[in-house]
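Hey, quick one: can you model this chain's 3D structure?
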Amino acid sequence: MLMLGTIIFISIWIHYTQAMMSDVNAALDVLGDGTAADNFNRLSQSVTATSILYFIYGAVMYGLCLWWTLLELEADQIGQVKDKLQLYMMANLGVRVCWWAVMTWMVLLLAGAAIFGVYTSNITYMITTVLNNQAMVGGYPEHLGPYPECPATCLDLWRIDYIDTPMNMSCVCNREALLSALTFTTRAKNNIAGSLVGVFFMYIIGGYWRSELARHYATCRTMQDVSGRLAKGGLEGGGAPVAASGRSAPARGRPGGGRGGGGGDSDAYRPLAGGPGPGRGIGRGRGRREAG
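Sure thing. Here's the predicted structure for all 292 residues.
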């Protein structure tokens, strides 16, 4: 499931990012020969490199998950896979450390895509403002003067920091060129959301990959620890079972301590309180009274 999500979201990110960059490049070509954006080629190269690297690491982590499944089956059948568990733990740890670096780069790439979207929205707004000024004035002049004199009905590319253009071609007044550039920049702006969603969910899927490998690592470490302790002869701290209490229950048929069942013999003679005892009888008492 994670591998399927990886393929889907990396495809979404590549599609929308490439479409956005293609539209921006077309808009720059329309605005004038020699017009280019700063670090545009570097962004294009980073998209290609990140896509390949992310997919390779996704395949590697998927392979580690399959390997862990086979190790679990082998442990259930054989019971002793200590050496293989150690090798798996080393591979798991190495991949997770490298994956942290990839995820850090994904955060930077997400920030870069957001900044690129802001620049695209900014140039779209500037072109729209110039076209509105031309519609308000009722036309546009053919700018032939020196650079600083660029009217409000023309787009001044020299004032845009992230666009490189020759100074003598930085003032664009042609309405058809501006309308065509606006079409491309608007399409690029509409693709920003898809690009950001794709790279964001790539980061989320990467977090799930990392947590899955961490769970496998913890389980593998527990299995290895238990196997080592069992190999030494049993769990540490274990021993003979604790003996039961020596106090036994009263025997059946024999009353315990209490009334009528004291510590002595139950058949012993016990005179009744206030009753006749040894040497005292009814007849003897009456004879003494008569004698008296």
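One thing worth noting: Residues 216 and 222 are 10 Å apart (CA to CA).
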